[in-house]
Structure formats: C-alpha cells, structure tokens
C-alpha cells in the first residue's frame, strides 16, 4: 500500500505542476460533445436519442488524448527505468499511477457530464444513469489504455498507434455504457449493463497492472 500511495501522490503532484494535463482532456471532451447540438436540428427527440452516445464517445476520445504522455515523461527523465529495477512491486506502482491518472481525467469527465446532458435535453433520471455508467466505465478506459501507452512508451509520437491498439478494446465498454441510456429511455432494466461494466472494471483492475508491467519491461529492455 505504501508503494501504491507513493505513486498515486507523485502522479497527482505532477499533474498539478502541469495543469494542461488536467485541462486539455476536459476541454476536448466539452468541445466534442458541444459540436453535435450545434450541427444538428434543434429537435428534442433527436438530441435525446444520440446525447448519451455522443458523450460516451467524447469521453473515450478525451481519454485517448491523455494517454500519450502517461509514461513518456517518466521514460525521458529515467524515473521509469528506476521503477523497473527497484525491488518494489511494479504492478502495484503502476496501479497507483493509473488510478491517479483516472482521477485527473475520467473522474473529472464523469463529474462534468451532467452539465453536458443539459445541452442534449436529456431527462434527469437518465442523467444519473449516464453518470453512473461513466463512473464504472472510465477507470477501465484508463487501465486498458495504459497497456497501449506502455507498449508505445519509447515512441515520441505514439498517439495514433495507441489509438489503433486500444480503440477496439474500448468497444464493449462503449456498447454497455451507451446501452444503459437506451434501456433506461425505454423503461427497461439496466442491471445487466451495470453488471457488465462492473465485471470489465474488476478484470481490468486485476489483470491490467500486470500487463502494463510486462509491457514496460518488454518495451524498455
């Protein structure tokens, strides 16, 4: 736990020193989500039907945008190599780093999503469905995305390659997350989608740290 909190706190301090890492994904998320209401006819039914999916896609793209520099700065200054040779658990260290990354990106995006729902005229009961889905889904986005970031850590411009690697893995999360809103709008239960997102999160929390540690060792060695 000491290793976890050490890396979690370090990542937060670095994010506050470089506030662009906090602001850029949020601004990108807002811009992507707002482009659709301005580009479509002002029909409540149309905006409500696509609003949840648009916000989910915006959250996915904003997460991808934040992944390129997740490990690259540590790679340049030698911190990552020191982490590889240190006797502390690399997988636990990376879990702390990634959850700190999520709290600065996915959590903030989730907290801001109800505001964007107003632009799509989404009913209040569905806003909470979207918010809950994002809270369950965005940690998985960060954990899975970190695997792609670890595989491309030595590349200066690896953003496109990261997207190619991880976007297919994001599809189930996107389907279940957006499907929750569709089910809710039709008055159907959303328990199956919630359980699916929770299962993906548990698998990501369990397996992703080991995959990330292995990818870093293989890439840097």
Automatic annotation (TrEMBL):
Superkingdom of the source species: Bacteria
What GO CC terms are in its UniProt record? plasma membrane
The protein's UniProt keywords, in alphabetical order, are: Cell inner membrane, Cell membrane, Cytochrome c-type biogenesis, Membrane, Transmembrane, Transmembrane helix, Transport
Please give the Pfam families that the UniProt record associates with this protein: CcmB
Please give the biological process terms from Gene Ontology that the record holds.
cytochrome c biosynthetic process; cytochrome complex assembly
Q: Which GO terms describe its molecular function?
A: heme transmembrane transporter activity
Where in or outside the cell it occurs: the entry states: Cell inner membrane
What residues form the membrane-spanning segments?
A: 21-40, 46-67, 98-122, 128-153, 160-182, 194-216
Q: How does it sit in the membrane?
A: Multi-pass membrane protein
Q: Give the family this protein belongs to, as stated in its UniProt record.
A: Belongs to the CcmB/CycW/HelB family.
* UniProt-listed NCBIfam families: ccmB
Q: What does this protein do?
A: Required for the export of heme to the periplasm for the biogenesis of c-type cytochromes.
Identification of the protein by name:
Heme exporter protein B
